[in-house]
């Protein structure tokens, strides 16, 4: 018998759905052709039980109503672009600033969006009191546990997946020489996953990285670590493939590479998709970028345990790309004026199972 694919998240409760239908029937007697919710990214994603997400900055969330309306219309998941990083949450030791992170979580709850938590253990964006504190290994272990207990605990039940460990590897597959790696050794990864699981047993726990989309030395090393963690019973549930691509360079081995992780029983997600093009962006490059958005999203959604695709921003206005890669930009699905680019159509066709 044909069975529907298991949904990765719960649909609206029946009563809520019925109420919405009832309200819609009264307040919106006619649907504008082409504007039904089913034709948005989140409409397609909801229909197949997956997430379509965007990284959200606190500035646009609080000051740009065009941004917010696209965000809420098109995306059923959000990731804090910076607000849940350690330097943002605990700028001085023991003094927490939850305001921006809380704002995003509350926004998500109000707009039926899930939250991906990003990120608990990273070499970067550490507060200076921590980075320069000359702490012993045992002190660092205690500080890390407290950070995870406090942060995951605060959002228990509200974050469906956490990027527990971010960017732990070098390109050649060796472990990156971070504060954590250097002082605590690779065991910090298993510990972080165990602590996060204890703080929120329902959250899916991820290792997230870039340049692991292809089958290469870095993804091989991660694959070996993932197998080892699973064999040891460590609560690792997923792998996040950041997917910061250059136009025309979506790796040919991406789908097969994601599949080998999925075959271990792990979820796979594209967590930070953007596709940069040389500026000024030509029509030909934008068309290529559109095809790449479709390919990259299908490379995940076509794999059995793909939980969803997140883009690293909504519009080109706030993207990190031009500030980091000189001469490149236009990496996201919307223009600075919130016009949908060909990239939007590519992404939409990638998410729509019937396209
Ligand atoms: O987009 C983020 C940018 O606003 C920050 O300045 C930057 C600081 O490191 O982090 C960016 O997000 C990164 C993410 O957290 C991890 N993967 C790479 C992303 C782009 O740099």
Written description of the protein model:
The chain is an alpha/beta fold and 355 residues long. The chain has helices at 14-27, 41-48, 58-63, 65-74, 86-89, 99-110, 128-131, 137-154, 179-184, 187-199, 217-231, 254-262, 283-301, 321-324, 342-351, and strands at residues 51-56, 77-80, 114-121, 161-166, 204-209, 238-241, 244-246, 267-278, 306-311, 328-329. The chain has one domain (14-351): TIM Barrel, CATH 3.20.20. It has an 8-stranded parallel beta barrel, surrounded by 6 helices. α11 links the parallel β5 and β6. The radius of gyration is 20 Å and the shape is globular. The two termini are 25 Å apart. The model is unreliable at 1-8 and 10-35 (pLDDT under 50). The structure holds ligand 9MR. Ligand 9MR binds next to loops.
What characteristics describe this protein?
355 residues; alpha/beta; TIM Barrel; globular; disordered N terminus; binds ligand 9MR
Write the layout of secondary structure elements.
Blueprint (H helix, E strand, L loop, with lengths): L13 H14 L13 H8 L2 E6 L1 H6 L1 H10 L2 E4 L5 H4 L9 H12 L3 E8 L6 H4 L5 H18 L6 E6 L12 H6 L2 H13 L4 E6 L7 H15 L6 E4 L2 E3 L7 H9 L4 E12 L4 H19 L4 E6 L9 H4 L3 E2 L12 H10 L4
Parallel strand pairs: 1-2, 1-9, 2-3, 3-4, 4-5, 5-6, 6-8, 7-8, 8-9
Antiparallel strand pairs: 8-10
Helix pairs in contact: 8-10, 12-13, 13-15
The site of ligand 9MR has 8 residues, from loops.
What would you say about this model in short?
The protein has 15 helices and ten strands.
């Amino acid at each position: 018998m044909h069975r529907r694919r298991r949904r990765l998240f719960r649909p609206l409760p029946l009563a809520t759905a019925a109420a919405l239908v009832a309200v819609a029937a009264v307040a919106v007697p006619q649907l504008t052709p082409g504007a039904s919710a089913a034709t948005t990214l989140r409409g397609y994603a909801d229909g197949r039980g997956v997430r379509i997400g965007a990284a959200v900055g606190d500035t646009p969330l609080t000051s740009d109503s065009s941004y917010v309306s696209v965000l809420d219309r098109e995306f059923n998941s959000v990731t804090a672009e910076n607000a849940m990083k350690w330097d943002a949450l605990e700028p001085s030791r023991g003094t927490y600033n939850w305001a921006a992170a809380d704002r995003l979580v509350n926004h998500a709850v109000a707009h039926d969006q899930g939250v991906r938590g990003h990120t608990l253990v990273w070499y970067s964006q550490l507060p200076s009191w921590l980075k320069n504190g000359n702490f012993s290994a045992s002190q660092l272990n205690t500080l890390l546990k407290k950070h995870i207990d406090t942060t995951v605990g605060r959002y228990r039940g509200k974050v469906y997946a956490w990027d527990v460990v971010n960017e732990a590897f070098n390109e050649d597959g060796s472990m990156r020489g971070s504060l954590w790696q250097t002082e605590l050794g690779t065991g910090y990864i298993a510990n972080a996953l165990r602590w996060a699981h204890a703080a929120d047993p329902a959250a899916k726990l991820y290792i997230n990285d870039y340049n692991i989309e292809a089958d290469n030395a870095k993804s091989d090393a991660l694959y070996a670590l993932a197998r080892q963690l699973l064999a040891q019973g460590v609560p690792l549930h997923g792998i996040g493939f950041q997917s910061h691509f250059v136009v025309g360079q979506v790796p040919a081995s991406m789908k097969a590479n994601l599949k080998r992780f999925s075959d271990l029983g792990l979820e796979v997600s594209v967590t930070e998709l953007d596709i940069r093009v040389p500026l000024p962006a030509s029509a030909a490059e934008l068309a290529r970028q559109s095809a790449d958005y479709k390919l990259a999203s299908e490379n995940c959604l076509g794999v059995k345990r793909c939980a969803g695709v997140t883009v690293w921003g909504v519009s080109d206005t706030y993207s990190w790309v031009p500030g980091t890669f000189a001469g490149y930009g236009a990496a996201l699905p919307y223009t600075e004026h919130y016009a949908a680019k060909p990239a939007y159509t590519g992404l939409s066709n990638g998410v729509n199972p019937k396209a």
